[in-house]
Amino acid sequence: MGIGIWELLIIFAIVLVLFGTKRLRNIGGDLGGAIRSFRSAMSGTEAEDGDKPHRADAEAADKPPQDKG
Question: Does the pTM exceed 0.70?
């Protein structure tokens, strides 16, 4: 009792009529680019976690200690 091939084809035809081929191509390209950048960001953050200090730690390391008194 799932969605069969004919139901998917009917849904695709309705979407095609509503949006048109040019807009569907743009949506597909945008979605593909978003997925690609998400994957690269996820793989990049896993590799960089141990290499680079966090932003707050990096800012604290750049500033000289302040004398209070």
Answer: no
**Phi (first) and psi of residue 3, to 5 degrees:** -85, 125
What CA–CA distance (Å, rounded) separates 10 from 17? Answer: 11
In 3D, which of 44, 64, 63, 40 has the Cα closest to residue 52? 44
Per residue, the 3-state secondary structure of 35-49, as one string, reads HHHHHHHHHHHHHHC
How many C-beta neighbours within 10 Å does residue 15 have?
13
Q: Backbone dihedral region of 2: left (phi > 0), alpha (psi from -120 to 50 degrees) or beta?
A: beta
For residue 53, pLDDT beyond 60: no
- Other residues' Cβ atoms within 10 Å of the Cβ of residue 19: 13
